[in-house]
Amino acid sequence: MRAEPRRARRLLAGTLSAAALAAGSAHGATGEDPSFVQASQAQIAELTSISATVGPTGTVSYTFAGYHPAISGVVFTGRGSWDPKTKKAGEELDFPQGKITSSTTCPADPWSEGQPCAALGAGGLVAASAGTPFQIALLPWGPPVGAMLLSPASHLKAKAAYAEGLRNRPTATPTHTPVPRFALRSGGSGAKEIVIPTPTPAGRLARVAAPARIGLTSDLAVNTPTPIPTRTPTQTPTRTPTPVPTHTPTHTPVPSGGARPGAGATARLSFAAVAALLNDALQGTVIRLHNAAPGGGYANDSYVAPGPRLGGARIPIGVPAPTFQAGAFTSTLFVNDVNSNGITVTAAGDRFLVTVTFESAGPELLVRGPMPMDVEADNGRLLLTLTPGLDASGRPSFATLDADMTANVQCKAPSPILAAICNTAQPFAANFLRSQAAQGLRQALQTPDFRSRLGGAMRALLDAPAGRVAIEKASGQKIVTIRATRFEPGTLAIDHD
Fold first, then answer.
1. pLDDT digit string, tens, across residues 65-82
2. Which residues contact 287 (CB under 8 A, 6 or more apart)?
3. Are residues 287 and 144 in the same domain?
């Protein structure tokens, strides 16, 4: 029985077969706790960076880096590609102590779309070297491993990278065929001839070929071309033009922007420019997550404190304190004084991505029960995905909002007795942030009140002098009065006088 782990790890050094993915045999081979293996295979991997290059034929190549929050210390870099014509996908994942390569066929781009591809044994192949995290290599969704592990938020990042690569996509340079030039001259007999320049054959440098002539005369045997007689042009008499009377325009001059005041023109801002306005509107907003009472127990004090442009009272966030079972122990997970420290907004295709970062001072999560312990949740990140829309007053805001929260969760057991609780608490805490904490944030912000606050801030920025200058610079039109706004594909349309 002791030879079983070595046999399983040797299997990782080669190609993994479909039979190797049987959950029971994998767990028995590694000796890992089944709940930990299940959590490590969850689609929660986060990308810290990704870029895409789209070739002339549509093939997309990605370069990326990220980490898996359910497996302590697992970071990776990778390269992946997908060909829309052949549907073939391939990848190379590099870990600190191992490497995974895979190939498969996918109906759509697995990085940007996240759709499943051909599994192992059905056209998909995975090879993992020794030292590679065993749980990741035995991914139940099949290859490409780096794409199938990603969280929904990371798939959106890949989609944004693809859109950027598509904008910078190189185009093939067309080949132009030279067009021969023709000339018309008088032949030796006075007939008109079309002269077609004939190129000199390669290798015959001693003789210059005479031009071929097509006309009423066919003196093709003569090597010396017929001289063209000189013709004296007929003098054209000089004509004095009749002066045209000057006409003074009676219409109103058009301003430099191309639209007359009161003409009812429309200016358009790109989503990148709208994202910059959203970024200004949200600055100063703080999100706090905390539900641990000082003396123990539950006391929720989680909220969104709107920035100066949004204004208004704090918005409460409902954050529960869930319980989990680890062996014979029942424990409760609390959030401890987690505060945001930065907000940035970017445009991603037809949506806006709001990234909220959190500080990492002190333990962010507390496990309380018979065996209490602290859990670190460093580098916390909340990703809000906004679809554009107008508020009830017709001002630019958002229509729907989705939330996803991740962090580098670390649980260090002070003793072997607490290792079982720690191994369960770590993936449980990561899933809690992605599900229940993110859900509470979404419910707090997906309200008519918050949409109205954001819409008011956006309209104030558009009406401000700096906003007018930005609109005029982006659209090239003079703005007198903004009458209405509306979202169009990729732009914010601003009807104005």
1. 888 766 655 678 899 999
2. 303, 304, 305, 317, 339, 340, 356, 358, 382, 441
3. no
pLDDT mean over 301-306: 96
Q: Is residue 22 part of a domain?
A: no
Token pair listed for 167: 């904008």
Domain that holds residue 407: 270-457
Give, in degrees to the nearest 5, the angle at Cα 36 between 34 and 40. Answer: 120
pLDDT by residue (tens digit) across 256-303? Answer: 333 344 457 898 999 999 999 999 999 999 999 999 998 888 999 999
Q: CA-to-CA distance for 350 and 371, rounded, in angstroms?
A: 48
Helices 23-30 and 4-13, packing angle to 10 deg: 110
Of the residues 167, 191, 207, the one at which a domain ends? 167
Residue 170 pLDDT > 80: no
Q: 430 and 295 in one domain?
A: yes
Q: Evaluate whether residue 306 is within a structural domain.
A: yes
What CA–CA distance (Å, rounded) separates 479 from 486?
16
Cβ-based neighbours of 43, under 8 Å, separated by 6 or more: 141, 148, 149, 150, 151, 152
Domain presence at residue 65: yes
In this structure, the answer to whether residues 153 and 282 fall within a common structural domain is no
Q: Give me the pLDDT at residue 196, please.
A: 46
Residue-level pLDDT at 299: 93
Residue 206 lies in a domain: no
